[in-house]
Amino acid sequence: MGNKQIKQHLETAQKTGVLKISLQRLQELPPQLKNYPNVLKTLDLSQNRFESIPEEIGRFTLIKHFNMSGNKISVVPDVLGELIKLEVLLLNDNMITRIPTTLSNCQNLKTVNLSHNQITEFPVMLCGIKHLDVLDLSRNKITAVPSEVATLRVTELNLNQNQISILAEEIADCPKLKTLRLEENCLQASAFTPRILKESKICNLSVDGNLFNSRQFNQLDGYDNYMERYTEVKKKMY
């Protein structure tokens, strides 16, 4: 993208608060952004060649929608926690290995997509964020869902295609969790304890591709309770 085009984009963004510079092979922020006024509410830098999230991002404290999916990012910097108005964070399709604890400062987050990365530990700093509704961690290398998950407030959690062999029973305490996706992991049927099946609010549970078959799952203590919730929700849909 030439300087003239970038200048036009920046001029428009000053009025709209929306700046989209995707598919431009960028490896760093356009220099013009360094002295740019703090007016951005949406910043889309997806499908570029960034290997890191620029530290200057921390200046744009009004951003609500931040998209850097489809880059080559391996580490998310602490400075991301300064975007306290952030509502949507899209960092899927990168090479991210860890998430900073400062992300817990972003208490307005509603949607976080970290799918298709190299994350090995469940990002517990996202637990307790009041408005977080959807968390996508599919296609990573997570091996365990820890007890801290009890304070996760999402309605949908996607953990498909990880390496999870441990599922903390405290997932039953998630106050709003309705949809839990755990397909293609390393779970035994026994990971789904009676407490999870009987006491949780989960009514849509995807478990294909684990270390058990559907018959074993259907025979679990609490399966009938889960199916009651599942059926109830289906009835409301029609």
UniProtKB/TrEMBL annotation:
Domain of life: Eukaryota
UniProt cross-references to InterPro entries, sorted A to Z: Leu-rich_rpt, Leu-rich_rpt_typical-subtyp, LRR_dom_sf, LRR_domain-containing
Pfam families: LRR_1, LRR_8
Key word Nucleotidyltransferase present: no
Transmembrane spans: none
Alphabetical keyword list: Leucine-rich repeat, Repeat
The protein's name: Leucine-rich repeat-containing protein 57
